[in-house]
């Protein structure tokens, strides 16, 4: 099986002294694992930054054995954010989520395009807010739709709308910007509250039912925003 494609590097793990096993989310073949020989060479090492977009030439004898990649750089992405610790942590966390929550060898153009959209939103001043909505859209693409408007309640206090979810044991306030798209977050605490709500949904509705541990990279990203 031989093919040429383009994709985003999701992960890399040392295979031997000069090689790595990489996972790449490709445009036409979905998430694929393969060996990159000579990964420690100066040329390949510079290309192999998590998140970079690369040209991929894949060779494999059959689906039961891991194949190998030959790569060339398509677009340098992650190194553009090396000096921004928060955005860099966001990239690592996001690509790890894509790795954890996508199926091997299953083509999905929408997910491929969403990764491109992710890197574009990092250029905006409101990137954290935009990222929260990006995650919700990503979850929808993999079959988990958090439709807040279907289960929230609303009340008014001091002429302001308050959205909440009420259970037997608690009343959880929902940041207004997650419900009313015309409203901006009030402050950083509002953004963190929104991100934590999405994190809770991720953990309870997606990760735990699939026996996946909560990613350390995500916890580190959220901690940096505090």
Main β sheet profile: 5 strands, mixed, barrel
Oligomer: single chain
Q: Give me the secondary-structure category.
A: alpha+beta
Helix content: 25-40%
Mean pLDDT: 91
Distance separating the two termini: 47 Å
Order of helices and strands: EEEHEEHHHEEEHHH
Net shape: elongated
What is the domain total for the residues?
A: 2
Verbal overview:
It is a single chain. The chain is α+β, with helices and mostly antiparallel strands. It has two domains: 2-79, Nucleic acid-binding proteins (OB fold (Dihydrolipoamide Acetyltransferase, E2P), Beta Barrel), CATH 2.40.50.140; 124-225, no CATH class. Helices cover 38% and strands 26% of the residues. The chain contains seven helices and eight strands; from the N terminus they run E-E-E-H-E-E-H-H-H-E-E-E-H-H-H. The chain has helices spanning 42-47, 85-101, 109-121, 127-141, 176-179, 188-207, 216-225, and strands spanning 2-14, 20-26, 30-36, 53-59, 67-75, 153-157, 160-166, 171-174. The strands form two sheets. A five-stranded mixed barrel has the order 1-2-3-5-4. A three-stranded antiparallel sheet has the order 6-7-8. A hairpin with a 3-residue loop joins strand 2 (20-26) and strand 3 (30-36). Helix 2 (85-101) packs antiparallel against helix 7 and helix 3 (109-121) packs antiparallel against helix 4 (127-141). The longest helix has 20 residues, at 188-207. The protein starts with a strand and ends with a helix. The mean pLDDT is 91.
